[in-house]
Amino acid sequence: MKFKPLLLLLFFSISSCMDKDDYYHRGIEKTHIEDYEGAKADFSKAIALDQSFIDAYRLRGKVKSFLGEYSDAILDYSKAIKINPQNNYSYQAYYDRGLAKMELSDYKGAVSDFSKDIQFEKTSWITYAERGLAKYYLKEYQSAIKDCDSAIEIHNYMGYSYYIRGINKLKINDWNGACLDLEKASELNTIDGIQCRDTIEKYCKPKNLP
User: Fold this and answer.
1) Helix, strand or coil for residue 198?
2) Residues 134, 111: contact at Cβ < 8 Å?
3) Which of 2, 91, 98, 167 has its CA 20 to 30 A from that of 118?
4) pLDDT tops 70 at residue 206
C-alpha cells in the first residue's frame, strides 16, 4: 500500500511531461488497436496544446468517422483544411471529408471534395474510384465511368474500380461491359466480394441477360 501514492505520483508526473507530439503518437497507437474513444481523447489533448495541429484535427476526424460521428468528423476535416489549404495533410482531409459526406448522402459535396483532392493528388486511384461512386448515386453514369477509367489507368489491379465501373455500366445498359468489369472485380477480390458475386449472379448469368 505504501507504493500506491508513489505510483500515482509517477503516473501524473509522466502525464504532465507529455507534449502535443506524445499525445498525437499515442492517439495513432490507440487507433491501431481500435481504441477510437481513447485515440479521440489523445488527439483532442494534442489540439489543446496546439490549435494549429493540422494532422491531429484530420486524424481526430478519422476516428470520429470510425465511431459514426460523421458530422463532427466533417468539422475536424474542415478545420484542418482552413488552417492551411496547401498543406499535404489538408489534401488528405479533402478525401476524408468526401468519405464522411458520402456517409451522410451528401454526394455533391463528396464529388467536390474528391475533385479538390485530385487537383493535388492526380495519381490517387482511390479518389477517382470514390468520385465515380458518388456520381453513381447522382446518376451521372457516363462521368462516373470516366473516373473509373482513370482509376484503372493508374492501377489496373484494384477490383474496387472495376466494380464501380461495372455497376455504372449496368445503368446505361452496357451489359457485356458491365459483366466483364464485375467478373474482373471478382477475380481481383474486390472490397465487397459477396456483393460483387451477388451482382454477377443477378445480372450476368445467361438466363438473366436481356
Assistant:
1) helix
2) yes
3) 167
4) no
